[in-house]
Structure formats: structure tokens, C-alpha cells
Write a structure and sequence with these properties.
The structure is a single chain. It is built from 14 helices and 23 strands. With 392 residues, it is α/β, with parallel strands linked by helices. It folds into 2 domains: 246 residues, Rossmann fold, CATH 3.40.50.150; 135 residues, DNA methylase specificity domains (Adenine-n6-DNA-methyltransferase TaqI, Chain A, domain 2, Alpha-Beta Complex). α5 packs across α6, α9 packs antiparallel against α13 and α12 packs across α13. The chain is elongated. The chain starts with 11 loop residues before the first helix and ends with a strand. Bound molecules: S-adenosylmethionine. The site of S-adenosylmethionine has 23 residues, from α2.
């Protein structure tokens, strides 16, 4: 297995779940890009016995094994990122009935080929993307290959569906395609990676549907919860967990942004800070739900670096288990690592903020708003929207 090629294969129960969400009864043609060891196609072949299946992978070893297991399929050694993909697969654009895909997730260099792939399937302008990843390009390639009315089931990383930096992507997707459902998959369903993922099911059609179902899957690939939400809400986030939290917590309060909170993260990594001769704090110092720490006042340090100071409230920016812990600076000043946020609010809001962060509501809020493919991250924009429960 080659992790550089994103060779994390889908378990059969998740393949079955993905294939079950494609509603087309008897598709004539099915495309799969990045077939791996054939986990998806094995299930697809059982469901659609008479379909012509075309597929490819960049790894010659995979193609060799697939050819011996599936001698009747049309298999090709291809690069899914190529602008000549349809030629290399010997098919025309806009002709496939169904696409199934679990693409590799890696960073891709922006170039003219990538620009034409992204822009010709109406997923916005290349320049609007901070970064381009192979999963996004595979999604675009699938959308170009399937016909009008065709369906696609694709496993995507959390970032595309939840991160602020892909908001424009989600808006383009919703405006130009019919999102038929999003299924949040449980953690750790792929061996050797903790990637958080979702199945996105799309119909290549502009037929307007006001609402979209979001689902939660368990480890067995069974749907255990469902939520229907208005389509326009998906622009903010498309994942089940967050949208369920919002639906259940119609909470009134005042946001950190409204009270003028200043939020900043540390500049240096733990490794860099260890080589300095100054006090610093890192996620490992946040070892209780709430802790208090005092430091010596240090005017020179404060002048030189952005420090956490008396009254500041520190939380983790990134992590798995420490995100709901809070540390309050009682005195002095200290450096903080780049895994932490400093939240600075006026004195009158300090206690309400501490109360909110350490309450059940606050912990649930953090859980619902953290996202990420491997470690969970809270964005500053989300944090500014945290509502303080009671003031004065
Ligand atoms: C995440 S695995 C998924 C495999 C399989 N579809 C599954 O669901 O188990 C991604 C697959 O894409 C292939 N791949 C990686 N980069 C590729 C590229 N540029 N073009 C085509 N295939 C690629 C890898 O070799 C790997 O088999």
C-alpha cells in the first residue's frame, strides 16, 4: 500500500452504503477513478450486473490485479488529474450514467490543466481556491464524465465539506448540482489513517430541491440518524454533526465578535519554543477542564512577542482530546504555542466566557464546531460566533 498515492481502501460495508445511495435502477455505464483493490467496484458489479464498468488507477500493480479479478471490465492505467482523462479512458465527456469514487487526498499544484478541469464543471474560479487537492479534482472529473441526470457517490475529506476556505466551493456545488445527500462516516474507518470523511451523493441536474437529507453512519455502514435541512444551509457546513447541533441548540446570547473579543493564536511551534529561554504554554498544559496559571510580568517579552497575559483565556486550536479544556492566566505574561488560541475579552466578560466554555453547552459547541480530516481544528471565524451564555 502506497500512502503517497492515498491508497486507503474502502471497507466493504462502506462501499455497500455508498452504492446503496445511487438510485438509478439500471445504469448502462459506470465510471470509477482510482479503483485501488476494487472494493467499490466489487459491490457495484453485484448490484448492477448488466452495466458496462470503466475504471482506472495510476498504480500499474493495482491495474494488473484488477484485470485478473475483473477480466470483463474496461480498465486503464490513467492519471485522474490529467486534462486528457476522457481520451485516455476512451469515453466522451458527459456520457457516463453513474460515478463511484473514493479518491486520493493530496495537495495538487495549480496549473492550466487543473484550471480547465475545475472551471469547466462550474465549481468556481481556480483563483478562489486557497489550495487544490486531488479529491476536488477527482470530484470535478467525475462531474465532467457523467451525463446530465447521472449520479455520483464520492467519499470526500471533511475539509471540503466543513472548512471556511471551501465555502465558495460548496456554494458553486449547490448552485450547479443537486446534492442528494451527505453521509457522515465514523472516525477511523480507513486503516492507517484517522481521516474524517463523508459520502457525498450528487445528481448532475439543476432541478431545484429545497431540502437536503444529511445522514450519520455507524461503523457497520448503517444509517443511524437522519436530518433534513434547507439546501442553503449547506454553504456554511455540510456535515451531519454540526447541522444537528445547530438544529438542537437554537440558543440566544451574545457572540464573542459582538463583545469585541480579540482572538489570536501562538506563532511558534512547541519545538521552537523549547529552544527559547522563556516560559510558554502548550496543549499539554491544558490538563484539566479548567486550570489557572500565573507567570512573572515580563514587559520585554510582551514588547517583542504576542503573549498571553493576565485575564486571557486559553483554549486549544487543534487536537483530539484537549479541545474542551480551558486555561486562565491569573498573572503575568507567557508565550503560547501555535496549537493554542488566546481569547481576550473585557474584564466583565471573562467569567461569563469561562462559564460558557466549561459548561455542557460550551463543550458540545466546541465538539460541533471543530472539524478536520485528521486532527480536529476550530477556526477563528467559528470561535468569534460562540455565544456567551449569561452576561452580568
Ligand atoms: C483512497 S484509494 C481508494 C481506492 C478504492 N477506490 C477504494 O475505494 O478502496 C485512492 C486510489 O487512487 C489511486 N490514485 C492515486 N493518485 C491517482 C491519480 N493521480 N490517478 C489515478 N488514480 C490515482 C491510488 O492508487 C488508490 O488506489
Amino acid at each position: 500500500m502506497n500512502s503517497n498515492l492515498g491508497q486507503y481502501y474502502t471497507q466493504e460495508r462502506i462501499s455497500r452504503l455508498l452504492v446503496s445511495k445511487i438510485l438509478m435502477k439500471n445504469p448502462k455505464s459506470i465510471i470509477e477513478l482510482g479503483m485501488g483493490d476494487g472494493s467499490l467496484v466489487r459491490v457495484a458489479q453485484k448490484k448492477w450486473k448488466n452495466s458496462k464498468i470503466i475504471g482506472g488507477d495510476i498504480d500499474p500493480e493495482n491495474i494488473k490485479n484488477l484485470k485478473s479479478e475483473f477480466p470483463d471490465l474496461n480498465l486503464f492505467l490513467i492519471n485522474g488529474l490529467s486534462s486528457k482523462l476522457s481520451e485516455n479512458l476512451k469515453i466522451s465527456l458527459g456520457t457516463m450514467d453513474v460515478g463511484i469514487c473514493n479518491p486520493p487526498y493530496s495537495k495538487v499544484k495549480k496549473d492550466d490543466a487543473i484550471k480547465s478541469i475545475i472551471e469547466s464543471c462550474n465549481l468556481g474560479k481556480l483563483d478562489d481556491y486557497h489550495i487544490i487537492t486531488s479529491d476536488l479534482v477527482f470530484l470535478a472529473q467525475n462531474l465532467l464524465l457523467i451525463r446530465e441526470g447521472g449520479e455520483l457517490g464520492i467519499i470526500l475529506p471533511d475539509g471540503l465539506l466543513t472548512s471556511h476556505q471551501f465555502k465558495h466551493f460548496r456554494k458553486s456545488l449547490i448552485d450547479n448540482y443537486q446534492v442528494r445527500g451527505v453521509i457522515e462516516l465514523p472516525d477511523k474507518i480507513f486503516k492507517k489513517t484517522e481521516a474524517k470523511t463523508h459520502i457525498l451523493v450528487i445528481r448532475k441536474s439543476k432541478v431545484k430541491k429545497r431540502n437536503v437529507p444529511l445522514y450519520l453512519s455507524n461503523n457497520k455502514g448503517e444509517i443511524i440518524e437522519k436530518l433534513i435541512i434547507p439546501k442553503n444551509k449547506l454553504v456554511h457546513r455540510m456535515d451531519f454533526s454540526y447541522n444537528r447541533w445547530v438544529a438542537q441548540n437554537n440558543f440566544q446570547g451574545v457572540s464573542l465578535e459582538r463583545i469585541g473579543a480579540k482572538i489570536f493564536r501562538g506563532k511558534f511551534s512547541k519545538k521552537e519554543l523549547t529552544s527559547f529561554n522563556y516560559d510558554f504554554i502548550h496543549t499539554s498544559n491544558l490538563n484539566n477542564s479548567i486550570s489557572y496559571k500565573s507567570f512573572k510580568p515580563n514587559k520585554r517579552l510582551v514588547k517583542k512577542y504576542k503573549c498571553a497575559q493576565k485575564g486571557d483565556i486559553i483554549i486549544s486550536r487543534v487536537g483530539k482530546r484537549c479541545l474542551d479544556r480551558v486555561l486562565v492566566i491569573e498573572n503575568g505574561a507567557t508565550l503560547i504555542s501555535d496549537c493554542l488560541y488566546v481569547i481576550r475579552v473585557d474584564k466583565e466578560y471573562q467569567q461569563p466566557l469561562i462559564k460558557t466554555l466549561t459548561s455542557e453547552y460550551g463543550r458540545d459547541w466546541i465538539k460541533a464546531h471543530s472539524h478536520g480530516v485528521c486532527a480536529s481544528v476550530i477556526s477563528k471565524i467559528d470561535l468569534l460566533n460562540l455565544m456567551i451564555k449569561s452576561i452580568r
